[in-house]
Amino acid sequence: MKTLKLLFITAAMSLLPASMSGRQYWETDSAGGITWNVVDGDCHADHVEMAGKTVATVLRYGIDATGAFSVNKSMVWPMLRTIPNNTSGCVMRRFDWDPIAAVTVNGKSFKNEKVKKISFRHALEVESDFNNGYYGSWKLSRKYFPSTELPALIEEYILVNTGSKSLRVEIPEGGFVMTTDPAKGVAGAYRIEGKTDKNGVFYLQPSDTLCFSAHIAAAVSGAPTVLPDAGKELAARKRLVDDLMGSLILETPDSVINKMMDFAKVRACESIYATKGGPLHGPGGESYYAAIWANDQAEYVNPFFPFTGYEYGNESALNSFRHFARFMNPEYKTIPSSVIAEGDDIWNGAGDRGDCAMIAYGASRYALARGDRAEAEELWNLVEWCLEYCRRQINADGVVASDSDELEGRFPSGDANLCTSSLYYDALRSAACLAKELGKSNHRQYERQADELRKNMDKYFANEVEGFDTYSYYKGNDVLRSWICIPLTAGIDERADGTIKALFSPRLWTENGLLTQAGDKTFWDRSTLYALRGVYSVGATEKATEYLKKYSGTRLLGEHVPYAIEAWPEGGQRHLSAESGLYGRIITEGLFGIRPTGFRSFRLTPRLPAEWNDMKLRRIRAFGADMDIWVKRGSGNKLDVVISDNGKNRKYSIQDGGTINVKL
Q: Smallest Cα–Cα separation from 310: which of 278, 349, 265, 355?
């Protein structure tokens, strides 16, 4: 019955955007995470995705009207490939298996639960009280988290006798074992097992504690059984999360934005799978694993990895570009949108989405921020090839033609769309910087091409749409679209004022961020995240901060937490991982205005909000450095900036809105 209640609540929740009621269930806590302190009458359900190198899980959890906790565990094993071996071709199962359901205390099953709080940082943690009068009372703590290396979800349970009577706790030997159909597995049958680590009778005197664990794991049938050590697995998960939160540290007067940045780093970096084709960052969402896309990986998250210092993230970025480079060809046929099935196959079902613009954009930005000459030399051919592909797609009006955009035909995009040309423009700017670093002669050519493209884009796309001086997303488009924000992220500011007014008008902006198209109900977080970065980039700091605060409060502390989401209604607001990389880039490229110009150089245009006296970004690992940037309000209209790198402090004083050309 408890499971049915939870599934009903979760199903109902997926029909509406998470922030529709505006309830803020969570708050930041002293442990560096977030906590939902449950009050009587709370009845709410949510879902969250977590991942390790060989497993992912989506936990659908909640509290029913009686105060009891329920969880459904959706398991994904990306490298256990199924037939057909396509984009979603891996073993996925949803389990209601609850080890506690079979445990008895003084001969009775667990009843009369009252959840006191749910917390999230390293794991999903639940603390509950059970008061059964004559039969005893106790506290139960649950933790759910994926193994960092093993194909297993770990569950840790701690039971404390809080009453005055002894407790006889009986844990039966049990669990489950299932074997998948060998005809549907690339490697034959797969074995899935749920198991507890203890069984027997345990006597607890008042204040005594009993710890036990469980796991759900899978492997190829006949392979050794997966036997995790819950203590070691939790320690490894803590190290990963603490290391990620301990790098690229944001310090501002707004604790919610700071913490949202912490969680964004975790989600962006944890979703990298150890495939036979090397480390592949995957979006997740119970659909997209052991595969890469030109937008999610090349464009969204790869340029973010160097700033985090997460080496496995940098490895996955380089590996993804190597996979895309396999498809360069002398005929200049487009590179596939996606490389799937651990690198064994491709998906190109939407034709040319502007994928080469996406790849050139991401690879050139990544190479500059990474600051590794050998990697940059390797990536140069890919960047050059993709730029030449885009040049060959320029139409008679001087903008880039493509079959669709990254929304793959969900909304119209014409024969040439604003997104593809904007990404190509940005890629040309970065490629010119990269060419200079590598001693290539075509950097001036790329600069000229960018200048010409910018003029042509304004002629072709600039338009009055619904009364705003902004852009038609494609020729003939007369309805506002969220992707009019893309030029702002590339520093194209000719229509900035009208575009910002359009973005934050009631026609596009909702309590859930930007609608994809005015008058529709669909929203994709990626456009909101791009817009906030772009609005900072062109200097509308107060407007960007106002809406960044609203967005962060909703996503971190509202009804569906703690990460950026993909979309609604499609996908039920999945926690796709690359969107969290886009949140991080609001901070690095928007708020702090970092634009890579070389292996050891960048432009810095900080945007300090009027209500803040200072802001810091510490342990930035890009450009071969480990540096801090401290921006504080100076005298008059000045900003004082201190950049610390290896014990050396560089001090600057600039006008608010000014730019520093930094050479490390």
A: 265
Q: What is the per-residue pLDDT across 433-480, written as a single tens digit (0 to 9) for each?
A: 999 999 999 999 999 999 999 999 999 999 999 999 999 999 999 999
Distance CA(410)–CA(392), nearest Å, equals 26
> In whole angstroms, what is the distance from residue 135 CA to residue 183 CA?
50
What CA–CA distance (Å, rounded) separates 529 from 414?
A: 24
Q: Kindly provide the residue ranges of all beta strands, DSSP E only, lying in 184-276, ordered along the sequence.
A: 190-196, 200-204, 209-220, 249-251, 272-275
**∠ CA(173), CA(179), CA(180), 5° rounding?**
145
The pLDDT, as a whole number, for residue 646 is 86
The strand pairing partners of 465, in sequence order, are 468
Q: pLDDT tens, 159-210?
A: 999 999 999 999 999 899 999 999 999 999 999 999 999 999 999 999 999 9
Helix, strand, coil % over all residues of the chain, rounded to 5? 35, 30, 35
Longest dimension (CA), the chain: 85
The residues, ordered by sequence, that sit 6+ positions from 183 with a Cβ below 8 Å of its Cβ are 83
> Collapsing DSSP states into helix, strand and coil, what is residue 207?
coil
Half-sphere exposure of 525 (CA within 13 A, CB side): 29
Q: DSSP H helical segments within 117-254, as ranges?
A: 230-245
Report DSSP state, residue 515.
Answer: B
Please give the distance of CA 371 from its chain centroid, rounded to a whole number. Answer: 24
- pLDDT digit string, tens, across residues 360-379: 999 999 999 999 999 999 99
The 3-class secondary structure across 542-584, one letter per residue, is: HHHHHHHHHHHHHHHHCCCCCCCCCEECHHHCCCCHHHHHHHH
Asked if 392 and 454 count as a contact pair (C-beta separation under 8 A), the reply is: no
Tokens read off for 435: 């060419």
Provide the pairing of β-strand 627-633 with 614-620. Answer: antiparallel
Residue in 232, 341, 11 with CA at minimum distance from that of residue 3: 11
Alpha helices (H) in 439-495, listed in sequence order: 443-461, 486-489
**Residue closest to 295 by CA, chosen among 481, 420, 390:** 420
Which residues, at least 6 apart from 629, have a Cβ–Cβ distance to it below 8 Å? 592, 604, 606, 616, 617, 618, 620, 641, 642, 643
Cα 395 to Cα 115: distance, rounded to the nearest angstrom? 61
